[in-house]
Design brief:
single chain, 6-stranded parallel beta sheet, about 10% strand
């Protein structure tokens, strides 16, 4: 499976004309637009604790991009992502929102993520996946309110990778910095099928990981406000929504637009050719050759030549 990783990406709140939620430019939307040049359908998955509103808004009216966001919903930023927000026009049914509340555990998260993900892959059949791995859904985050361990969070990464579809993996939120580093280091190892020891090796930032100096996190002893009944209701609603889709949308064949680097190189080459042509056209000017302007011949710098010509015209 082809996987690309950019942990500094994942700025899912930025809109076309405004910054939002610490995000000033939506790299996810730009990446998906590039992927759509070569893939008929792209799936976007968001496991940040906040709703991926900027990405959903960008593709709300198209069936070529499906957005799948699991997030805290209610009195919580950005306040969007209701389960009934399913898209508009051609995109109706292609926005999949999982509204959750505080205390989400690994088991409960997995029970909603995997069945919905299976159904999405069955009916949408994406050519590429973009996975936003915001670490603020981990236990102990200063702004988040979920209670996921690294293993529970990374299970979404592992499961997404198991489908064998080309995937772009991005970072996102995360406000307990030492846990963000833990999370993305571990998820890199999951993507590479490499085991990491739980003991953090000594490094320049070793003291940040006190007191246990361990890779993995222990979830807090707190209540999960997502009841089994509420989770089952959400799961049924989402599977019903996905079952109502017509199937994977198709796209007519057309010329693939060039990428940005190709456009920039083409522009540079055109500029160079124009400059060379201007230089070439200017060679030989005022050297007495046949290309020189002869209308001024016989004129002198002091104007006497012009007066003689005028007198000759009067005499004639």
């Amino acid at each position: 499976c082809d996987v690309a990783v950019n942990w500094s990406g994942g700025l899912h709140h930025a809109k076309k004309s405004e910054a939002s939620g610490f995000c000033y430019i939506n790299d996810i939307v730009l990446a998906i637009l590039e992927l759509l040049k070569v893939h008929a359908r792209v799936l976007y998955i968001d496991i940040d604790v906040h709703h991926g509103d900027g990405v959903e808004e960008a593709f709300y009216c198209t069936d070529r991009v499906m957005t799948f966001s699991l997030h805290k919903y209610g009195d919580f930023f950005p306040g969007t992502g209701h389960i009934k927000d399913t898209g508009a026009k051609e995109g109706t049914g292609y926005s999949v929102n999982v509204p959750l509340t505080s205390g989400m555990t690994d088991d409960a998260y997995e029970k909603i993520f995997k069945p919905v993900m299976d159904k999405i892959m069955e009916v949408f059949r994406p050519g590429a996946i973009v996975l936003q791995c915001g670490a603020d859904s981990l236990t102990g985050d200063r702004l988040g309110c979920f209670n996921l361990s690294l293993k529970g969070h990374a299970e979404c990464v592992r499961y997404t990778k198991s489908f064998g579809v080309p995937t772009l993996v991005l970072g996102g939120g995360g406000y307990t910095i030492r846990n963000v580093a833990r999370c993305w280091a571990y998820e890199t190892s999951v993507l590479l099928d490499t085991k990491l020891p739980d003991e953090i090796p000594y490094n320049d930032y070793y003291e940040y990981y006190a007191p246990d100096f361990k890779l993995h996190l222990t979830p807090e002893q707190r209540e999960n406000l997502n009841t089994e009944a509420s989770m089952e209701s959400v799961r049924i609603d989402l599977l019903t929504q996905l079952s109502g889709l017509r199937g994977a949308p198709s796209v007519g064949m057309g010329e693939v637009p060039p990428d940005f680097e190709t456009i920039r190189e083409s522009t540079r080459e055109n500029d160079e050719r124009t400059e060379a042509r201007e230089v070439r056209d200017g060679d030989g000017e005022n050297d007495g050759g046949s290309g020189d302007d002869v209308r001024g011949r016989g004129r002198t710098k002091d104007g006497k030549g012009e007066r003689k010509d005028h007198e000759a015209e009067l005499a004639g």
